[in-house]
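F.,

This is the one I mentioned.
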């Protein structure tokens, strides 16, 4: 048993292959003073090499193995190494040890391959490491380990298949912590760490920071601690999983040979059979499930539930939740709160329930219900069915042919592409058909209906509505109340129905029929037709035609109303008015004078007996002094 002390007066530097700078025998003690240097430059040459067990080494100076495959220090058996704050140990492997050894590092241990390599083969081969300094490089230990880190480890830590302990509550480690086999315990610090439990009954505690914890097989206790952590359960086992403070995520990985889905209720904090073990789950906000048919239920927190593949059932319950069905046919319920639902691939059923929810159908033919609240629904691709239900909702059909039902409230509906059916129902709604051939019904309320592109059909129904056909050949029906209709471009057909309506044909060749009421009609550009199919009344049913052009426009008179006009044609095959039945001026001088134009007032009359015995009834008011002739009238 020898005692050695090295300082600047007796530095050692070697250059030979496999020749250490200093070699110790059993129970020797070496102190390298702050001014001391032990340097091995040769291949396979170590700075300090212990030839036997029981050595004691204190490093205050510098130990280095700068040659290829050199160890800074080699320890055997029950040796003890202390690196003071002024000490530095450097090598391809900083320290290599076998047997049961203790290391206290206050300075720096550095290894270009590994900083520490413990080659123990049994539970009796224990590495006891207390680090308050810097360890630069990986730590690998195949025996048992008990590690306390209050300093810095600048790489990964991989422990053996025995019962290991890592305590890093006040330290920093930049790489992963892999516990492998054995009943291990690992406690992280304030920073974000990644821990792998491996086989055995492990305890993983992330401490602070956004940690990533992998449970592994065995009966495990996993605690994320503070910070937004991600915990992955990747084996069939009975685990206790605690998310800890902040917003935490639990992932159930698909396990080879297991084809059942996950069943998990986050509101249950006692043990539950998840299909992946009898697990006790608490303080978890977000769950990512398996590739199979999962059933996930949220709690009072703002949950994020992801079904991935399989026919999943997701219930958000309380809180502002995000539900993502993923692939296959899923069922999603938002519950209370302002929720976000994503159907993914597959014909999904989605219900926002209470709150101001946002629903995305995404791919395939989905059914989406907004529920109460002011909801936003975007169907995505596929022939979808959308129900706004209560509240002031925004519903977008997206691609393909959709059905959209607004429900109650003042809603905004847009069919997108495809041949859509759009129903405003109650409330003052805005309906946009989008491209292709759409059919719109305003329902009850003062609605705006816009056809956009395509040959659309717009029905105002009840309420003071505004209808705009947009491009192409549209059919617009006002419904009741005083409505405004604009055909836009294309050969449009406009019906005022009841009420005092305003009809604008727009560009191209349009057909305008005011229906009952005192209507205002303007054909616009093109060869327009003005239809009269209801019994005229001087008090309640006289229309104004603002821009009748005798060169281009015509009037169609329905024989069922104007019976005295004789032969009846059809809308597609009208019959020109008999020349004898038209006259200009109020002087009725023939029994055949049935259609009378007063050019001074611009009023057009109908006289049912042609003699004036029955008072002529005004049909419409036109511009004054038009050069009207019988050629401008047809009987249908």
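My design for it:
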């Amino acid at each position: 048993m020898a005692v050695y002390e090295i300082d600047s007066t007796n530095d050692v530097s070697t250059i030979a292959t496999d020749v250490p700078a200093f070699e110790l025998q059993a129970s020797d003690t070496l102190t390298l003073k702050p001014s001391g240097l032990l340097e091995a430059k040769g291949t396979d040459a170590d700075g300090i090499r212990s030839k036997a067990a029981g050595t004691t080494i204190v490093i205050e100076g510098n130990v280095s193995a700068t040659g290829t495959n050199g160890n800074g220090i080699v320890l055997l058996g029950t040796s003890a190494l202390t690196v003071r704050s002024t000490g530095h140990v450097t090598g391809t492997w900083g320290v290599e040890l076998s047997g049961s050894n203790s290391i206290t590092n206050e300075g720096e241990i550095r290894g270009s391959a590994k900083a520490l390599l413990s080659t123990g083969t049994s539970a009796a081969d224990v590495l006891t490491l207390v680090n308050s300094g810097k360890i630069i490089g990986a730590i690998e230990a195949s025996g048992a380990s008990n590690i306390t880190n209050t300093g810095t480890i600048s790489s990964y830590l991989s422990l053996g298949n025995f019962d290991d302990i890592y305590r890093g509550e006040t330290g920093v480690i930049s790489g992963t912590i892999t516990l492998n086999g054995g009943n291990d315990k690992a406690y992280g610090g304030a920073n974000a760490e990644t821990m792998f439990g491996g086989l055995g009954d492990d305890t993983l505690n992330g401490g602070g920071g956004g940690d990533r914890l992998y449970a592994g097989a065995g009966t495990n206790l996993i605690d994320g601690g503070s910070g937004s952590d991600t915990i992955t359960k990747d084996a069939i086992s009975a685990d206790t999983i605690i998310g800890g403070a902040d917003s935490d995520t639990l992932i159930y990985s698909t396990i080879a040979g297991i084809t059942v889905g996950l069943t998990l209720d986050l509101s249950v904090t006692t043990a539950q059979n998840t299909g992946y073990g009898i697990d006790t789950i608490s303080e978890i906000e977000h769950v990512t499930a398996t590739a199979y048919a999962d059933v996930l239920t949220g709690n009072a927190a703002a949950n994020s539930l992801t079904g991935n593949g399989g026919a999943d059932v997701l219930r958000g319950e309380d809180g502002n939740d995000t539900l993502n069905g993923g692939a296959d046919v899923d069922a999603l319920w938002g519950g209370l709160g302002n929720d976000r639902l994503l159907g993914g691939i597959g014909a999904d059923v989605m219900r926002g329930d209470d709150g101001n929810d946002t629903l995305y159908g995404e791919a395939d033919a989905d059914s989406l219900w907004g529920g109460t609240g002011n909801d936003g629904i975007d169907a995505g691709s596929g022939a979808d069915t959308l129900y706004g239900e209560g509240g002031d909702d925004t519903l977008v059909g997206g691609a393909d042919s959709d059905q959209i039902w607004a429900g109650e409230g003042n809603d905004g509906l847009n069919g997108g592409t495809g041949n859509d059916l759009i129903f405003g129902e109650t409330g003052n709604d805005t309906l946009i058909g989008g491209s292709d051939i759409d059919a719109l019904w305003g329902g009850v309320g003062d609605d705006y209906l816009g056809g956009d592109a395509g040959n659309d059909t717009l029905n105002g129904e009840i309420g003071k509505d505004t209808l705009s056909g947009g491009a192409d050949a549209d059919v617009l029906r006002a419904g009741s109340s005083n409505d405004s209709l604009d055909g836009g471009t294309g050969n449009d057909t406009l019906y005022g129905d009841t009420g005092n309506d305003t009809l604008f044909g727009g560009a191209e060749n349009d057909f305008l029929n005011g229906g009952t009421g005192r209507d205002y009609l303007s054909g616009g550009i093109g060869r327009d037709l003005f239809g009269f199919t209801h019994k005229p009344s001087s008090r309640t049913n006289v229309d104004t035609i603002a821009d009748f052009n005798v060169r281009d426009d015509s009037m169609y008179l329905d024989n069922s109303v104007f019976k005295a006009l004789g032969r009846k044609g059809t809308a597609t095959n009208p019959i020109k008015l008999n020349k004898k039945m038209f006259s200009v001026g109020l002087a009725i001088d023939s029994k055949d004078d049935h259609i009378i134009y007063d050019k001074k007032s611009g009023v057009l009359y109908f006289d049912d007996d042609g003699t004036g015995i029955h008072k002529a009834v005004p049909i419409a008011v036109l511009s004054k002094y038009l050069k009207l002739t019988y050629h401008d009238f047809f009987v249908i």
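The longest strand covers residues 88-98.

Talk soon.
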